[in-house]
Amino acid sequence: MQLRRVAVLGGGPGGLYAARLLKLADPACEVVVHEQGDPDTTFGFGVGLAAGTQRKLEAADPDTLREIAAAGLRHNMTMRVGPAVARVVNDRLIGIARTELLAVLQRHAEKAGVELRFGTRCAAADLDADVVVAADGVSSATRENGDFGARIDVGKGLYLWCGTDFALPDAVFAPVTTEHGTFVTHAYPYSADRSTFLVETDEDTWRRAGFDVTTAALEMVPPAPDASDETSLRYLESIFAELLRGRPLIGNRTRWLRFRTVHAARWSDGNTVLLGDAAHTAHFSIGSGTKLAMEDAIVLVEQLRTAPDRATAFARYEEIRRPAVARLQELARRSRLWWESFPARMHLPVEQLMVAYMSRAGNVPLDRFARSSPDVVGPALRQYAGGRPHVDPAGGDLTGWVLGRPLTHGGRRFADRTTVPTLARIESDLDDPWSPDGDAVVARARATDGVLLAGPATRPALLTRLDLAERVRLETGTLTAVEGPAALRDDLAVGLVSGRTDLVALIEETP
Hints:
The chain is of the alpha/beta class. It has three domains: 5-72 and 92-150 and 261-337, FAD/NAD(P)-binding domain, CATH 3.50.50; 158-250, D-Amino Acid Oxidase, Chain A, domain 2 (2-Layer Sandwich), CATH 3.30.9.20; 351-507, no CATH class. The chain contains 18 helices and 24 strands. Strands 6-5-12-13-14-11-15 form a seven-stranded mixed beta sheet.
């Protein structure tokens, strides 16, 4: 398809990358990026690019990836609970300052012949273009003013972004329990002298700390558009002082927020197509905003290049990208629910907590994690088995070993984890174990000597059932078992090691 003129709304990573790829694909096409902000200022700290995204960028545009990689910082990952530390080697992840990433993408866009216009607010309807790419973010005015059928789900937990003036040695997840409740940081280095420092907490803790008051004050009478919640920053730097080495936290429009998950029923309307956060968002704990936007850009440009017309290109783009986005959004939803309920797991040894974290969304199998991180999984298996010897976590039938461990619970002893006594059976098919329906299951479980949670045999339903079992187990202390198909025994095994359930009931599916 021959395009005469393309307008891109939004000068973030997705918009800039789409503009460059469009110009490289069709040098004769006029490509203009319209960004309402100033080129010398940006919101945010660092962003991360995982190995899979880097491979896709390498295939689409190796020159840009080469400069991004050179400007970024690779790091591993740790979980810290007090003095205890579990470390996972994952140096394929690149952290890069958002300012530097934008600078790289701006240079490469202009090098390709893209025109960048800053400081102007434009609407899609006002632009004379064959195609308008709306990459104007989670609060997209284009999406809100068009026929895209958008729905936004708002999370329960609260979080804020801030930064440090030094580079942490690794990415780190570290909870701190205070007189108000638990705050947990997700922090990672992105340059030689900077780190992102994200903090999240539950609503009750947030209110007890008085941050509902500071948030309301900023929202109702903001002293300046860029003002940060300085009261929260000073408190957080005091409770995370050891991790911060006594250094201050840096704000940049830093305010408590609830995560908004965007679902657009349609990604195009007329000559306008949504890209990145304008079309979809996924919780930050999966590290997916920049990834999704840049991967969207690769597919969109390819379809615009090869499709016979605009409508076909838009349809193919959505057909290709929507399944991948839906999968990541589901992983992110599970991850968000795990983090929103994080304080309930503070009793776990740090290695078991790391296994629970890595398996929270269902996309990291236990055997694969054991091969890559035996120094973490080995101790976690010993903790699960009460200190007994175990198989080599990097080899053997790990799932079989997990299922075969004995259990003593409330004076009852079980030879293995698949021998399930007669328990109160509760059928459940929830999306959110921490919903009112989940409350009802917990209430029913309190009146029993043990429960068997059953439900649909699909993998998503089983993963949710394991999360529900964890809540029942932690809140009631009753013996908890989960029923699931034998074909999903690996998921059941990681649920046992992670402390989500006590026992599992394997069922053979009939053809």
